[in-house]
Amino acid sequence: MAPRTKTRDRIVLESLGLFNTQGERNVTTNHIAAHLGMSPGNLYYHFRNKQEIITELFGQYEARVDAFLRVPEGRAVTVEDKTFYLESLLAAMWDFRFLHRDLEHLLESDAELAVRYRQFAQRCLDHALGIYRGFVEAGILLMTPAQTEALTLNSWIIITSWVRFLCTTRGESADISQDLLRRGIYQVLALEGGYLAPEAQPAVKALYEKLYVPLDAIVPA
Length: 221
Description:
Blueprint: H1 3-22, H2 29-36, H3 40-46, H4 50-68, H5 79-95, H6 97-101, H7 103-109, H8 111-137, H9 145-170, H10 178-190, H11 201-211, H12 215-218
GO molecular function: DNA-binding transcription factor activity; transcription cis-regulatory region binding
Organism: Metapseudomonas furukawaii (Pseudomonas furukawaii)
Keywords: DNA-binding
């Protein structure tokens, strides 16, 4: 890898860490440059502004979700696939949590990113609907087409708004832990509870137990 590429990758990686821990709005290009021990001019050689770094990070997030949010090829979906999807979502949300935390601001600040995000959202909804239909076809979920569509949309709403919910209940400056995000994935799984086929319930119950986080840990007194 060429030195210029190594430096660019390092800027992107360290920016992600700063955005996640401090919030994107609290981090400037000067903060990033100082954190990396480089001059602002050196950073601008690779990225003209912070928005270009955010666009690069969104591209990474987009590619990651696109890679796992799809129906398996050549076979029916299984309960094990459900575990894979939920764990993959949890990991992506954790690694790019600043995108979920500051999404509205990010999209208001960049019209091109807003268009790209809408296309990404539609793609995710289409793929998620295909996955839920796959669970219905496999006999794991017992749902009508209208119920499947509603489940898809409700799951998307929870996933994309969960970090903001945590910020409003715990304070903007509160740390977001993996356990707190895990409860958000649990909420998605809980939406399916009334539609599970009897034979799928034991395996899914184990998933419930793995993802459950007590409510008082989410909304402190």
